[in-house]
Amino acid sequence: MMNWQQIFVVLMSQSDRIQTSVYFPKDVYDALVKWAEEEDRPISNLVVRIVSKAVDAREKQEKPPQQ
User: Cβ atoms within 10 A of the Cβ of 47, count?
Assistant: First the structure.
């Protein structure tokens, strides 16, 4: 059982997260399940990592070159 300090840390670390629903085609979902199992992580964690990397890459492409 978690003590109040551990619960507080968990709640604080989740305060900046937004919950949403995503609908995947079955083949994509199956591939994500396999990938997540291979990395021993939840699918949601894997999807957040994949999307975060995609957002970072897009933001780097959108930045104008500095002179």
Answer: 15
